Amino acid sequence: LAMLLPVGVMAAGGGAHLDKAEYDLTDKASLQNGAKLYMNYCLGCHQTQYQRYQRTFADLDIPVELGQENLQFTGEKPGDHIKSAMPAESGAKWFGAPPPDLTLVARVRGADWIYTYLRAFYVDENKTFGVNNEVFPDVGMPHVLQELQGVPSKTYEPTMVDGELVDRYVGIKADGSGELSAAEYDTAVLDLVNYLVYVGEPSRLTSESIGRYVILFLLVFLVLVYLLKKEYWRDVH
User: Fold this and answer.
1) Better pLDDT: 134 or 4
2) Which residues lie across from 59 on neighbouring strands?
């Protein structure tokens, strides 16, 4: 428990409330849409260099030809690792630090953190990219999904507190200029999270399936070993 504590603290981030990401690794349509969103909006800066295109295509039931046409943009081969074309030096110059590799981000940060983070950007004219983030304050990253969500701002509503009318913060709300509605944007972000969870452990479903058979085998083996033990100790007694 003591060893797991630092991981829990890291996943929680700066103490912001995290919304539950109800992802489903068996939903191939969600994973395919998540892969499309990642390749179009994230790969320009963030790579997943420990994952190959071909593995992604195979696991997500994407025909290789279709994947090359729609998910590979700079002449990569299916067997290549998924790498960003942006040099690390340029990333450090533009953003203050090289954009991190996202292969294991879901295992380090947690799905809930990513899901909340991508829905927590809001307008802040004092920042370089004009936005800030409630989950990761002062993050040096633009809101790359803004064309989908619209322009998000902090919203307030008048509320009576101790007989005085004050503005109470109620959350972040987009202005409706995005390509997606609020519900559709949440679904799109969940698809992207689903894909990042898959990338962090591509063999997870297979491992869980094998694990169930292993546990069943061990239970049966336990019965046989117990009976064998009884047989041996019968002679001793």
Assistant:
1) 134
2) none
Phi, psi of 4 (to 5 degrees): -80, -15
Quickly tell me which residue has 């990042």 as its tokens.
196
Q: Distance (Å, rounded) from C-alpha 24 to C-alpha 198? A: 10
Q: List Cα–Cα distances, 198 to 17, 21, 25, 57, 87, in angstroms.
A: 24, 14, 7, 12, 26
Q: Name every residue whose Cβ is closer than 8 Å to that of residue 186 and which is 6 or more positions away in sequence.
A: 119
Question: 1 falls in which pLDDT band (50, 70, 90)?
Answer: low
Over 70: is that where the pLDDT of 12 sits? no
pLDDT of 10 > 50? The answer is no
Paired tokens of 84: 């960003």
Which tokens belong to 8? 């829990």
List residues bridging with 103 in a β-sheet.
none
Strand runs labelled E in the chain:
48-52, 81-82, 121-123, 131-133, 152-161, 164-174
* Beta-bridge partners for 159: 166
Q: pLDDT (tens digit, 9 = 90+) per residue, 67-111?
A: 999 999 988 999 999 999 899 899 888 998 899 999 999 999 999
Backbone angles phi, psi at 64, to 5 degrees: -55, -45
Q: What is the pLDDT of residue 169?
A: 86
Instruction: Report how far Cα 86 is from the mean position of its chain's Cα atoms.
Output: 21
- In angstroms, what is the C-alpha Rg of the chain? 24
pTM for this one? 0.85
DSSP string, 188-205: HHHHHHHHHHHHH-TTHH
